[in-house]
Specification:
- A 5-stranded antiparallel beta sheet has the order 4-8-7-6-5. Strands 1-3-2 form a 3-stranded antiparallel beta sheet, with helices on one face.
- The longest helix has 20 residues.
- By secondary structure, the chain is α+β, with helices and mostly antiparallel strands.
Length: about 210
């Protein structure tokens, strides 16, 4: 799925199950503690995806530890993003010489649970929801909006090192497979992000990639 959203030289690796055993670095293993098997499987498989992407970029395998906001900490010279949901794990990595930041998020293509849309959407987004549903009723637009918000934060934080709440971004979804995130913080160093989305089978995925500044 990601290969349809990201151009080279972004390295993308996806897996749809946890069948292959994953050997973790000791410091990664220490992060898991007494985690339940489900958490261990998704943690390991998504890191296997990332290390395969490192290999594609000719980067030595490295431990991928969580930072203070649970963001993945990458080797010097690398940017990237991880995502996992039921039936899907993925990593997208690139060199900092090519891209400034990357964000990805995958979700089951199902309506968002009750209360989620009201918790994440600002009035402008709610106002556009009816038109989107009329344009393509097959798409779970509420879940797609949530995913686009998650991807926006994943692209935002590595650049700014600042929190971004759901209410701090106005997401305009387009039925053609794109979206724009307008950052609403008055002192934001970033005006917004352009992203893409895709629904395939029972999964949806959103993606942002910002080229490096020349």
């Amino acid at each position: 799925m990601l290969e349809q959203l990201f151009p080279p030289p972004i390295a993308v690796v996806e897996r749809y199950n946890d069948d292959e055993p994953v050997e973790l670095f000791p410091e990664e293993e220490a992060q898991l503690g007494n985690a339940v098997p489900k958490r261990r499987f998704e943690f390991g498989t998504v890191r296997a995806c990332a290390r395969e992407a490192m290999r594609v970029l000719d980067v030595a395998p490295a431990a991928i530890l969580p930072g203070p906001k649970r963001e993945p900490l990458w080797p010097d010279g690398i940017v990237g993003s991880l995502t996992h949901c039921a039936g899907y794990r993925a990593a997208a990595l690139a060199r900092t010489s090519d891209f400034e930041t990357i964000g990805i998020d995958a979700e089951p293509h199902l309506p968002a649970p009750d209360g989620v849309l009201g918790a994440i959407a600002i009035p402008a987004e709610l106002g556009r929801m009816a038109g989107l549903k009329a344009e393509d009723p097959k798409i779970c637009w509420d879940r797609l909006l949530f995913s686009a918000k998650e991807t926006t934060y994943k692209a935002w934080f590595p650049v700014t090192r600042r929190w971004l709440g759901f209410e701090d971004a106005d997401i305009t979804l387009d039925a053609g497979g794109t979206f724009h995130s307008r950052i609403l913080l008055p002192d934001s160093p970033i005006a917004g992000f352009d992203g893409r989305w895709l629904v395939q089978g029972d999964l949806l995925i959103t993606a942002i990639a910002v080229p490096a500044r020349v």
